[in-house]
Amino acid sequence: MSEYKIYMPKLGESVQEATITKWFVKEGDSVEEDTSLFEVATDKVDSEIPSPVDGIVKKILFEQDAVVPVGEVVLILEVEGEADEPTPNVDEIPSTNEKSGEKAAAEVESSVAKETIEGEVKDINKLSNRFFSPLVKSIAEKEGLSVSELERIQGSGDGDRVQKADVLNYLEQKKSPVQTKVSAVPAEVPGVKENVPPAAASVKTSPAQEKSVVQVGQDDTVQAMDRVRKLIAQHMVDSKHIAAHVTAMVEADVTNLVQWRTKMKDLFASQYGEKLTYMPMFIEATARALSEFPMVNSSIDGDQIILRGHRNIGIAVAKPDGNLVVPVLKDADEKNLLGLTREMNHLANNARINKLSPDDYQGGTFTITNFGSFKNLFGTPIINQPQVAILATGSIEKKPAVVETSVGDVIAIRHKMFLSLSYDHRVVDGALGGAFLRRIADLLEQWDVNRVI
User: Fold this and answer.
1) Of 54, 116, 245, 291, which one has the fewest beta carbons inside 10 Å?
2) Which residues are tagged catalytic?
3) Secondary structure (3-state) at 153
């Protein structure tokens, strides 16, 4: 018998740690290859980690709800014969200085003092009694915040945990001379209002810092948010804080599209075993429009615009538990309609049964959310950061409409739907956002009813 170590896997490019939310095994259990060992959660994804080998659980090194760095040994299996255990490499298990094993850990410890003096916070959790997430540490490192500065920030999360919005608000106040002047004046000093400029007097703390007091009645029921819902809530608030949201709408006549789907859906089911929904058609039109309007397929980094080289479209999917996930179709512009249908159905089904892999969430450059699946006409969605736009598709309804013909205008029954685009006005102006949205509508309206797959 020999030992086989199971490490905390890498769950995304920027993920440095994960929380063990559930154990499926206990010490002494026999496991087979691909048996789920434990469930982990990050701010991006929940995943079940399977066993790569057959064996017996010898030692579990972390309890449930423990926050474990990527690359740490989580449990040890006993396996028959010599264990062919893969050696962790820097791609699979990143460390602070891109090295693995005890040597890297020793170098991290020896550099802590130097990093603190230089104001760096690469390993802040070792220097403070408070916990800081990888995202907070990354922002602090980039902005040159010291350990003592981070510890002074009032957190808005559970247990006063410092969140992204708290750090951004602190940086904003730190950089603003007006806010610095106000904070330096004791509130109880007489005449302070006359001495403070009007702009400074109106400065308020962000919603992340202010917690509203909510009265709970005796007939009310208090329900705690689950972990995923809290992450969604924070992500949405962050996006509204970061991006300058504007929403545009158009109504599209998709009669040709409806007729084509009606004609083809049985063929898709019988010949390809796939359910043909409208979403693959929306994805195809959006991917083509993104190719023609590359600025909409971008992100903002400070005062720089990053034009994405791939058109990876995320699709918002509602899970049975009420939470929302956004799996991503990679290189959507390079797939035909059958390929989009197969991948869309696969991702949606896996999302609903919580079987998406970490890679399924990564790399999105644009998002589509379907309000029509809930029979809603339209919506004004919040941008999925760090993207700069999101498309909402409404329900398709029959409406009387004026149709131009060779013999004059007539009133006919047409299938129509609303499309709405929320975009970040920092980089997408009204002309660009309007042209992009109109192009998607045109592509859907001009659908060829005689098209073959």
Assistant:
1) 291
2) 425, 429
3) coil
